[in-house]
Write a structure and sequence with these properties.
It is built from 14 helices and 24 strands. By secondary structure, the chain is of the alpha/beta class. The structure holds uridine-diphosphate-N-acetylglucosamine (UD1).
Length: about 425
Amino acid sequence: MDRLLIRGGQPLCGSVTVSGAKNAALPAMVAVLLTSEELVLENIPSLRDVATIERLLQFMGVEPREGGSGSVCLSSRAVRRCEAPYDLVRTMRASVLVLGPLLARFGKARVSLPGGCAIGPRPINLHLAGLQRMGAEIEIVEGYVVAKAPRLIGTRFAFEQVSVTGTENLMMAATLAKGTTVLENAAREPEVGDLAHLLQKMGARIEGAGTSTITIEGVEDLAGTQHRIVPDRIEAATLAVAGAITQGDVLIQGCIPQHFEAVTTKLQEAGAAVAVEEGGLRVRMGTRPQAVDITTAPFPGFATDMQAQIMALMAIADGKSVITETVFENRFMHIPELVRMGADITFGGPTALVQGVPCLRGAPVMATDLRASASLVIAGLQARGETVLHRVYHLDRGYERLEAKLHSLGGEIQRVEG
Ligand code: UD1
């Protein structure tokens, strides 16, 4: 298993370009199940999660072809199996995104229940309730969701809780349903907007994506198209925090700053200079950060996917910070590892108290999930001495060559294979 060796203390300086968004690429690839024509997707990041969704689509009979320079061509003309097996759903929950499209186009689906993961139980009850409201018959058989519907029917469905993939699943299902579907309390994340944009290019009639009410008028069929995936706001924000923790000066190119304003606002409160410049967003930090309080929330709030990374920054801030996680219970697996690096953090329930210390110390640490790994990398870039990050495969699920990008900014970080 690969490891990362990080020697902290170097300020990150220079420019770096963000990749396509993982969380936009996965639903976009799944959308191929809604059409018999070809979909060409550009700016697809090279990630383990993308490889997993490709394997899942291949299992069903879709043949992905490399289109060169980060693009992928997909066709679902020859779908053989409307099924997502346990092994693939277990490693990546986003696999449940196939449920809505399969039901909508083929009238049937058999998808493994995802089960728990490192950041909490993460149920899919809202996905299922919405599909049932659209007329699907759903049973749980031997750990699988078995769903059928001769044709889904448009409906009004209010999410009890904001769900990103829940909104995407139902939005995709509704594109081919009979009649109009209204989704209330829908997720407003930019990745939902990007998926809606792709579906519109395929011929779907969607209004209100990006707001909390999305209206979808079902059509008979959808066509192929070409689409460029939005830049990854979580990667951009991770690079911004990495720049700040090292008191560096980083230009993040190819990002959309409005997509992670909640993070940059907090960086400014902590003392960073943040400016939109031609070609990107520049983040400079000249001093030790001030402690700020953070509460995660659905978009446009502070993303739960940035909570672990900002906690690394707060670990060396001047003062005490209160970090509250409202989206996922149990998303504090990085805390014991940060504490091993000298951080002073206690937590109970959804709240962590971070008493900043002047400097972290390098240590061997273990990645437990994707964003926790990024937090430990950021901490390692600040720490005195050497940090060895084990289980790098978590990082590889969602960051494209993060260590190479940090190295190009002057970070002392290298991958040791095997
Ligand atoms: C997506 C993102 C993930 C991000 C998360 C929150 C993708 C592929 N993944 O995950 O990176 O951390 O949004 O921004 O886009 N819930 C239920 N029942 C459901 C669905 C969700 O109770 O049927 C709960 C979850 O347990 C969680 C909350 O709702 O507490 C939000 O989860 P959700 O937005 O669905 O997360 P994902 O879509 O899985």
